[in-house]
Amino acid sequence: MQQLNRQYIAGRIQPSRGSDTQVVTSALSGRQIAEGVLGDATDAEAAVEAARLALPAWAATSLDERREYLQNLADAFAARRDDMISALIEEFGTTAATAGYIVDQSQYWFVDAQKLLTESVFTQQIGRATVRKVPLGVSVLITPWNGASWFIAMKASVALAAGCTVVIKPSERGMLQAQPVLDAIAEAGLPAGVINVVFGKGDPVGNVLTSHPDVAKVSITGSTATGKTIAHNAVDTMKRVTLELGGKSPTIILDDADLARAVPFAVGAGLFNNGQACIAGTRILVPQSREAEIKAALAEAVGALRVGDPRDPQTVIGPVLDRAQYDRIQHYIQTGIEQGGEILAGGLGHPEGLEEGNYVKPTLIATSNDRTVAQEEIFGPVLAVLTYRDEQEAIAIANDTPYGLHAYIAAGDLDRATRVAQRLQAGRIMINEVVDAPDAPFGGFKQSGLGREFGSFGIEAFLETQAVFS
């Protein structure tokens, strides 16, 4: 059995000083395929120290030097493309098409970050003040398991461009997919200590990293509960934080929507990455005037989705991460039924013929917005269908959630859809199509987080402002 016992600290791949282990399973078979050895507080301290020592020289690099190093990272990620895709599919079951997108976008983050490195980003004149943007300092980047390369590259690219050194803590539930990422980072040839990678659980590794006095910034993509813990840890030393947290995003189908377009849009937004995505539109709001028609169309579309081996190009829905995730999803479906929900497609158990592995039936359940399946983030292929009487109620239901990360609107009248969008409490709203926009701000309202990422908004999060008068 493969053993994953590697950290990357101070420019060297080295074994963990910790002894706690992590079982690594295949989403496809459900069987254990590796054992990970997790870091401990000593590893975390060593990584922060390496980043601290490397900071002055890295912050002093020219913009051209940073562009060159960012390109080295893009090239190293491209060279490890096949390994990254294979690990994504094996460990958490995303389809081959989605894995290819995730990995290709990972390398593009480093290319895009080079375009942000202009003098105007770092210096401007305001009256007698020369306003400078300077790197915050050592930055901790905590990333989730549903696409390790994408999240690591997205955060690290702008942090490095800003002149910060970084310590990356990938999710311990994504250790397999993070291995080729670690190799790519080591092969990119950045100065020792500029990038460090430590595996470990929140206690002790995460707690050390997020409360360490030498850490100036923490950026996490993860659960709302974890984000709150990190915010508490950061406050004593006034660390800057970017928190990209949970979501329970609405997809509003307005009564003038063309169902031939709206239904695939709603299903695709809700079930991207097997539903294992914070931006998933898992609450579909349908107008009472067309309720039966739209529910029937949604049920037909969800029921027709091909579930199976994610390596098969015809597969639309693969398995979920692990048995714990499978059990969690089954619990939510059962809860939905017990609370009076009507199963329109899917339901409990494995799809027929897919009893091995962590395969879930894509499930559509008609319910009301006060029920558990409509309020809590499930992180799997489960969609709640909610009925509204009029536009005003649709907006009220969409906003009736502790989250506010994303929203989707299907409509015939674009002006009307835009007016509805302006009344939604969400950081991103997409009308009639899912748009890939890595330069537009990304982040949430309410308990979906603090701050914004992507493009110029992402690099700003790793800069501090200084005014010099002369």
TrEMBL record:
<dbReference type="InterPro" id="IPR029510">
    <property type="entry name" value="Ald_DH_CS_GLU"/>
</dbReference>
<dbReference type="InterPro" id="IPR016161">
    <property type="entry name" value="Ald_DH/histidinol_DH"/>
</dbReference>
<dbReference type="InterPro" id="IPR016162">
    <property type="entry name" value="Ald_DH_N"/>
</dbReference>
<feature type="domain" description="Aldehyde dehydrogenase">
    <location>
        <begin position="20"/>
        <end position="468"/>
    </location>
</feature>
<dbReference type="InterPro" id="IPR015590">
    <property type="entry name" value="Aldehyde_DH_dom"/>
</dbReference>
<dbReference type="InterPro" id="IPR016160">
    <property type="entry name" value="Ald_DH_CS_CYS"/>
</dbReference>
<feature type="active site">
    <location>
        <position position="244"/>
    </location>
</feature>
<comment type="similarity">
    <text>Belongs to the aldehyde dehydrogenase family.</text>
</comment>
<dbReference type="InterPro" id="IPR016163">
    <property type="entry name" value="Ald_DH_C"/>
</dbReference>
<dbReference type="Pfam" id="PF00171">
    <property type="entry name" value="Aldedh"/>
</dbReference>
<keyword id="KW-0560">Oxidoreductase</keyword>
<protein>
    <recommendedName>
        <fullName>aldehyde dehydrogenase (NAD(+))</fullName>
        <ecNumber>1.2.1.3</ecNumber>
    </recommendedName>
</protein>
<dbReference type="GO" id="GO:0004029">
    <property type="term" value="F:aldehyde dehydrogenase (NAD+) activity"/>
</dbReference>
